[in-house]
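Tetratricopeptide repeat protein
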Amino acid sequence: MAVNTFNPSRALRLQKTAFLTALALAAMFGLAGCDTTNTSDAVIRIDKAQGSEENIASLTAVINANPRDPEGYNVRGSAYGRAGQFRPALNDFNTALQINPRFFQAYANRALVYRNMGQQAQAIADYNAALQINPSYDVAYIGRGNVYRMAGQDDQAFNDFGKAIQLGTTDGRAYHNRGLIYQKRNQQDKAIDDFSKAISLAPNSPEPYNGRGISYIALNDDDNAFADFNHAIELNGNIAESWANQALVYERRGDKAKAARSYRHAIGLDPKYQPARDGLARVGVAPAG
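Structure:
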């Protein structure tokens, strides 16, 4: 009978794969589909379990077994970041970079935490550092582009997303976020192309369906917009934007009762989601509260 033994190297590889994948997926499509109504960029979706005592203890055991390996600190920092424990995350990324100053992935991960902390200048500096070390690192172009886009620096953001795409990225965020800029510029056909590419790369993400639907609305193609919004709801029924977008099509069709129902559902998911509150008022129902 085989006996399982703790292998620090193998554990490190497994933890690294799990947590860096989780962090990357959490970052993917944190932006809402309609640029004009989105006011936040939830780049890390908090999962408190990542910072559980048991989980951190297992990662610490890996670090203790390999105290000069920067990968361990990078992985534990990612776990802290996913748990919303940003200061410990920064400490771990700092340690990883002290051990290996050319660890470009750690710079990008630290930038992601800085973004969540609202420290955008530090985030930009870290993305710049990652790209100085590895000019072909698409993740850093996409991350820096998101910071630029949220700051209203659309030209810089557009260039960064375009660079990631030129590098052959398979990360749908590059297309999704460039699509948002095309949308803002009222280049709806190009936006639809980018959202469609994002969908092909991440077919289970609702955000690019919402984005493409908004561009269809701008082109008065309500049927395709409605199909996209409904599919976004099928993928994740807990996003207020999707329900508000669905309601908008009902409203445009003159079905105020169904529009009100969907707007109410959106408000139930996010009482502060202003597009849903405005829509409910337009169809003749005053939002509660």
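The two ends are 64 Å apart (CA to CA).
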